[in-house]
Design brief:
Elements lengths: L11 E2 L10 E3 L11 E5 L9 E11 L6 E9 L2 E2 L11 E3 L6 E3 L7 E6 L4 H4 L13 E5 L9 E7 L10 E10 L19 E2 L13 E2 L5 E5 L2 E10 L5 E2 L3 E2 L3 E9 L4 E9 L5 E2 L2 E6 L6 E4 L9 E3 L6 E5 L4 E6 L2 H6 E6 L2 E6 L3 E2 L4 E11 L4 H12 L9 E3 L4 H4 L3 H11 L3 E4 L22 H13 L4 E7 L2 E2 L4 H4 L21 E2 L7 H6 L1 H8 L5 E5 L8 E2 L9 E3 L6 E4 L1 E2 H19 L1 E5 L5 H4 L4 E3 L17 E3 L8 H13 L3 E3 L21 E5 L2 E4 L2 E4 L3 E3 L7 E6 L13 E4 L2 E6 L6 E6 L1
Parallel strand pairs: 1-12, 4-9, 13-48, 31-32, 32-33, 33-36, 36-41, 41-42, 43-44
Antiparallel strand pairs: 2-12, 3-11, 4-10, 4-12, 5-6, 5-9, 5-11, 7-8, 14-15, 15-16, 16-17, 16-22, 18-19, 19-20, 20-30, 21-29, 22-28, 23-25, 24-27, 25-26, 26-30, 27-28, 34-35, 37-40, 38-39, 45-46, 46-47, 47-52, 48-51, 49-52, 50-51
Length: about 750
């Protein structure tokens, strides 16, 4: 934390009492400048009957322009933390205008997410930081009448920003207001539904049927789907400012295209031959004008109320739109296009682009992508079609939970350790690298190899003794190294910023490098994997941030042979750069294969290339935004629990329930959540996905759902049903009726809001 930079300017206002029939403000003025933390002692005015005392403030972290959010501020009044249930002026959860991401702006612990901003208004207006409902991001108000004492009230404010950031939190216009609050109207949870239920099973014929494909002389592709005609056009920039729109040849490039009609989609291969002796910048744009017809759009799985969105998300490289009758989508396939991809929609035009493609002199480059129509205007039809194209419906088997090999855990009794693992239903437990430390730091990088790792060995032996079927893992990160000599030792592997400085992870000692099969850093960091298996005696590896860490591009040697910064207006090459993912991919693929040959692998973040995705290892996605699972639905649909928002077991259960809203299963995060009973995670794995949907997943082995319906596999499979109530406890006497419809077996589930179920196929 950075307590020395808490307050730049603070004004606490207390005005004289006013009539109880109107709102009032009590005020005094005071300024505080750069103190360790701020404490105020004040006498509270009498609050009139029927009124509420409310503490109001504005907050920000100084920045030259709006730039996102971080946990920044924590407040207590007379020793009581100001937590979300006390907030009166805004919802805790908000939807970002820019991409539809759903964020919680305050944790259950009372930690406030503070925006980076130059003032207290610009974030609200900003298209990237602003919220769809117009909530004033900087402003917070808490009801505090029940916390006030007549005399000597103590208000304490504490910064949560990192000490290494050298940034403080600005708090201003703080007021103790007296006002009449309108009691919030609480929506009661929905009861079990009555009446007919939807019949839910895998589609028997999921492939889209489209009509005759027409390729016009100008290169446009057209075809009909369910009464709609979709037209797609492509164009490719040249360094003289012109654009190619159809196959042909000019002074720079020879371009050709292959269009193949596959099972329900069009496979496009665009080939470029650089005819020059210089690197050739070629921006690619693929669009369909749906203006006047489009009803909703999604890019990388996210959607906005405005219908305008831009996403750069290689893990879900898709654009999709629906009309009244059908849907149309694009998806990048080839590694380079997927890494560079930008998906967007603007004013009814659906698009996909590569603005970073630079082809080697005299080289040939092929970009592959697909056009994916859907007969129904259904986002999940598109998702499932893309999953089939990518061939990613592989078995998910690992129920993951962190369990560190620290002295604290080593002191746990066998009974306590057994309860922790059993009630999380974990078959994978993972040790982080938080002990032992290297010079007070977590042991990122090659320094891990020089530490005494015997605590891991003892930890894993104990787990095997208590749980022979539970496998162990140890944390691995392939881009960070905290060794003081690393920058000199691995000079050729430093990730460089455009200014030539080495990139870091927010602090000088967290230096970033890229591993390859031939550089010394790649060879040395690989020895961490050997230590994990041979010294720590783990069964597998948890690989954090596998595809890149913080910075996607490296501005230095070696060049990846395909990436660069291009002037969007002129088409000219500005700088060569290298995708960290593409530079490291041969190393990454080799390590994945090596790890999976020795044991098991799970990663944080989905693969960013087709080459990595083809290896079929399990991954999960962190949930800083509640709907972050949408980034993972085209690979391993699993989210990691929210370490910030989960305090109790019920918090974790609600995260599991929410994950299903985005077609995802769940893995446990922090050790702070101590489950007292088994919950839905007991029945989540193994799952081999067949279809993902909003609220449920249909797998070969099981269906996991938070929705009601008549569920089955469209066959005569037997069912074993487990239902959980809104508290996360299994309801042993729940009566799930079995129905036979047209000779096929279904389980009838009528679930109240907050309830979930798992149907095991027998």
């Amino acid at each position: 934390m950075n307590p020395l930079k808490l307050i730049e300017v603070l004004t606490l206002l207390l005005l004289s009492p006013v009539s109880s029939t109107v709102t009032g403000v009590w005020n005094w003025n005071s300024n505080i400048d750069q103190v360790q933390f701020s404490e105020y002692t004040f006498n509270a005015p009498e609050v009139p009957t029927g009124m509420e005392a409310c503490l109001f403030l504005k907050t920000r972290i100084p920045a030259t322009k709006p730039g996102g959010f971080t946990r920044g501020l924590y407040l207590t009044l007379n020793g009581t933390v100001l937590t979300p249930e006390l907030v009166t002026n805004r919802p805790i959860r908000g939807i970002l205008k820019v991409n539809g991401a759903i964020m919680d702006f305050m944790t259950p612990r009372g930690e406030i997410y503070v925006p980076y901003a130059p003032d207290f208004e610009s974030c609200d207006r900003d298209p990237y930081c602003g919220l769809e409902d117009g909530t004033k991001i900087h402003e917070w108000e808490f009801k505090v009448s029940d916390l006030l004492k007549p005399n000597s009230n103590l208000l304490r404010l504490q910064s949560l920003t990192s000490a290494s950031s050298n940034l403080g939190v600005v708090v201003a216009d703080m007021q103790l207001r007296v006002k009449k609050l309108t009691a919030p109207v609480l929506k009661p949870p929905q009861p079990q539904p009555q009446g007919p239920l939807a019949l839910i099973h895998p589609q028997s014929d999921p492939e889209c049927r489209y009509g005759t494909i027409t390729i016009a002389k100008d290169g446009k592709i057209s075809f009909p789907v369910n009464g709609e005609v979709f037209t797609i056009e492509s164009r490719f920039s040249m360094p003289d400012g012109t654009w190619m729109t159809k196959p042909g040849r000019n002074a720079y490039c020879a371009y050709s295209r292959k269009v193949a009609s596959e099972n329900g989609y069009l496979h496009i291969t665009d080939q470029f031959v650089n005819l020059t002796n210089e690197p050739l910048p070629v921006m690619q744009r693929h669009t369909s004008n749906l203006a006047g017809r489009v009803k909703k759009v999604w890019c990388a799985g996210f959607s906005t109320a405005s219908g305008n969105i831009t996403m750069i998300e290689a893990g879900n490289p898709t654009s999709y739109a629906i009309t009244e009758k059908a849907g149309l989508g694009f998806m990048a396939l080839s590694d380079e296009l997927q890494v560079h991809v930008m998906n967007w929609a603007l004013d009814g035009i659906l698009g996909m682009a590569d603005n970073n493609c630079v082809i080697k002199p005299k080289a040939t480059y092929r970009a592959e992508w697909v056009i994916v129509p859907t007969q129904r205007p259904d986002f999940w039809d598109f998702v499932n079609a893309c999953r089939r194209i990518r061939n990613v419906n592989f078995p998910l088997t690992q129920m993951f939970a962190f369990l560190s090999a620290t002295p604290e855990v080593e002191k746990w009794s066998d009974e306590k350790l057994t309860e922790f693992i059993r009630n999380k239903s974990a078959n994978i437990v993972c040790s982080s690298i938080d002990y032992p430390k290297y010079k007070g730091l977590r042991a990122f990088g090659t320094v891990f190899q020089i530490l005494d790792l015997s605590n891991y060995t003892r930890h894993h032996e104990r787990i095997r003794r208590l749980f022979p079927d539970v496998k162990t893992k140890v944390y691995f990160h392939s881009y960070l190294d905290v060794d003081d000599t690393a920058a000199r030792k691995y000079a050729d592997a430093r990730i460089l910023l455009p200014n030539g400085q080495q990139a870091n992870y927010g602090a000088e000692h967290y230096r970033l490098f890229f591993p390859t099969l031939t550089n010394q850093f790649g060879m040395d960091i690989s020895k961490n994997v050997d230590k994990i298996f041979d010294v720590c005696k783990a069964d597998g590896v948890y690989w954090d941030e596998m595809t890149y860490s913080r910075y996607k591009y490296h501005y230095g040697e070696p060049w990846d042979g395909i990436s660069g910064d291009i002037d969007l207006q002129t088409g000219k090459l500005l700088h060569l750069k290298s995708s960290v993912t593409l530079l490291s991919q041969p190393y990454i693929v080799g390590q994945i294969q090596r790890i999976m040959n020795r044991g098991s692998l799970i990663t944080n973040g989905v693969p960013n290339t087709r080459s990595m995705a083809s290896l079929h290892y399990q991954s999960f996605m962190e949930t800083g935004a509640v709907n972050n699972g949408l980034r993972s639905v085209l690979y391993s649909p699993v989210v990691l629990g929210n370490d910030i928002g989960e305090i109790k077991e019920i918090d974790a259960y609600r995260s599991m329930t929410e994950a299903l809203n985005y077609g995802c299963l769940y893995s446990w995060y922090g050790q702070n959540v101590w489950p007292e009973y088994e919950t839905l995670t007991k029945y989540m794995f193994p799952t081999t996905p067949i279809e993902l949907h909003e609220g449920y997943i249909i797998g070969k082995e099981r269906i996991v759902t938070n929705r009601s319906g008549l569920f089955g596999w469209g066959d005569i499979s037997g069912h074993e049903v487990h239902v959980f109530n809104a508290g996360g406890r299994e309801v042993s006497d729940f009566n799930a009726l079995t129905k036979t419809i047209e000779g096929k077996i279904y389980s009838e589930l009528r679930l109240a809001e907050g309830w979930t179920a798992a149907i095991i196929r027998r």
